[in-house]
Amino acid sequence: MKQIGLQLSSAAQSLYEGVKDLPITSPHGHCDPQWFVKNEPFSDPASLLIVPDHYVFRMLYSLGVSLTDLGIGVKEADRNPRAIFGLFAQHWDKFLGTPSRGWLEFTLYNTLGVETELSAETANMVFDEISSALRKPELRPLDALDTLNIELLATTDAALDPLDHHEVLSSGTSGRVIPTFRPDDILNPSRKGHAKNIERLGEITGAATSQFAEFLDAIASRRAAFKSLGATATDHDVPDLYTEWLPQAEIELLHQKACTGSLDRFEARRYYGHMLIEMAQMSVEDGLVMQLHVGSRRSTNETVLKEFGADKGADIPHSVDWVHGLNALLNRVGNNPNFRLLAFTLDESTYARELAPMAGHWPCMRLGPPWWFHDSLNGIRRYLDQVVESAGYWNLAGFNDDTRAFLSIPARHDMWRRGVCAHLSDQMERGVLRRRDAERIAPMLSRDLARDAYRLNGE
């Protein structure tokens, strides 16, 4: 195995040796459950490493590379995988200094066993080496769970998903691949087709969802269906954080308008703010952990959105007001011992100012790891430096990779574990931690805190 990643001091390396081979818990991500049901080899290097990875193609697009030339928006049968990979290889040097470079190097040279250094000149050779590796039985998706040392993987699934793949997986993988309930399409009026999604929820559950009480019952029914297949969490993509508890008559009126798609922007904000609190209350009742991912302005490039759709690299971090945004929710359920809230932000300025003090007070709250633009070596350092003094280590949610790039999961966890060990060795050097403290905390941050935060230990 090549030496890939942050070079560590002797003290940090010693800590890293104790955690680098721990099983990987991946409690939040975006892998397709269909992969594990079919268990077929990944088709080609481009479809695996480039086309689905917005970290990769957004950088190439910023350099003037056409998304179409990268296979984006092109039917798989019409793509030229070798040409796509060659185009990527021509710009391989442009990823220097980015976490994507580190993840891809780890994936190529460690996970896939590629022996040829990637460059524009060697693109065809590397393409062939990857293709050969992907044909190995141990890298088929289901088998790769063992190969990659992944003990648990959670997918993210819409509330209206039929869960047919998870029905198969629940009996065939001993609970190693589980769903996560993501109800954005039925809760947030700003989502396309929101009114039709409410109607569809009624069709699936047999409830008259035009009535607010039955709408809530239908959501609870879907949550129960997810939980029966192993789900331990919900996930909410919150564009603008706002919560408000509305009187019964008012929420009934707003729900009637939601069902006809006639809410104005102000009403939609209040409706969604109320629904987030309803979801928190349901979490108290059914025990599902509530995740909030906040601070992404989605699809800021209107031309790309129109031509290629959402999730095409144009999502940009923006500022978040956590204190006021969560106030109504926390003051309604935040003291309940059955409630657990995991907070993720793209607004790094809130780490020390808001989130760490909040997690250091509210018993329900755990801080999610650095997310998306910030799960880099420097992002990990900034996160730990800013949150630990107010939140401590036990109020953190460990790490999750939050990725669509399945074979990059070990690379992402390795980067986190190296970053954790570098942080802990710095704490030792400054006299903040004794060695035995650091040796205790390293595996917690690497694996154990995530399992606890997501209630994966049978809690």
Automatic annotation (TrEMBL):
Keyword Isomerase listed: yes
GO molecular function terms listed in the Swiss-Prot or TrEMBL record: glucuronate isomerase activity
Pathway: Carbohydrate metabolism; pentose and glucuronate interconversion
SUPFAM superfamilies, per the entry: Metallo-dependent hydrolases
EC number(s) reported in the record: 5.3.1.12
Keywords: Isomerase
Gene3D superfamilies in alphabetical order: Metal-dependent hydrolases (3.20.20.140), uronate isomerase, domain 2, chain A (1.10.2020.10)
Domain of life: Bacteria
Catalytic activity of the protein: D-glucuronate = D-fructuronate
InterPro entries linked: Metal_Hydrolase (IPR032466), Uronate_isomerase (IPR003766)
One BP annotation, GO: D-galacturonate catabolic process
Pfam family for this entry, one: UxaC
Assigned protein family: Belongs to the metallo-dependent hydrolases superfamily. Uronate isomerase family.
Record protein name field: Uronate isomerase
The species this protein was found in: Shimia isoporae
